[in-house]
Amino acid sequence: MLPCQLNxxxxxxxGAGKSSVARAVAQALGLVYLDTGAMYxxxxxxxxxxxxxxxxxDALSSLAAATDFHWDSENGILExxxxxxxxxxxxxxxxxxxxxxxxxxxxxxxxxxxQKQRAxxxxxxxxxxGRDIGTAVMPNAPLKIFLTASLEERAxxxxxxxxxxxxxxxxxxxxxxxxxxxDSSREHSPLSIAEDAIIIDTTGLSxxxxxxxxIGHAKRVxxxxxx
Length: 227
Ligand code: CDP
Prior knowledge:
CATH architecture of the largest domain: 3-Layer(aba) Sandwich
Bound molecules: cytidine-5'-diphosphate
Radius of gyration: 17 Å
CATH topology of the largest domain: Rossmann fold
Mean pLDDT: 94
Order of helices and strands: EHEHHEEEHHEHEHHEH
Helix content: 40-55%
Shape: globular
Largest sheet: 5 strands, parallel
């Protein structure tokens, strides 16, 4: 296949499968994959570690500004590093998951993060996933995808991903719904569907089915196939 060096924005609510889809699409098309949610999680983790109050917007935005994110390749695979180290597993902890939407709600923090995300994506094409990629970070991306799925299915997928028991489904549904509400109702760059985004409801679809759909759209944008 000829190289298809386009920027692809993938947005959607928690647990819609954005990261798995974005990673697989990037790999198939030879593009870089940037998980912007991991960056918000990493800043939240760092603030918690350093004892920065999560209500202190100025301190949080200074922290974001002073944090270095860069690519490094470990065994030939590009990985995102923060302050010289790979992102810690603790960015997926329950505490960070609980607090990240608060940190991500501040415009001053988002402004710093957007700049870093754009700089990381500069090059030969990137697949970026998050909440505001098609609307704010890469509004000119030639391909924007909005992934969604029913709340129940998203909660089931998240439990499987975390290796947790399906009896926790009601709690997980509540926690995802709460985060979706915070992310969609915030004042700055809320989770919303870009006007020119293609919406894919992934309920009942397998990962490879969704990946194939997105790759099909990418080929159409790149080479005009399937029109
Ligand atoms: O993977 P999951 O769906 O749990 O969420 P994530 O992509 O890791 O994002 C974690 C949180 O970061 C979200 O709930 C948002 O509050 C925030 N976020 C954001 O505000 N903007 C982005 N572009 C990405 C994430």
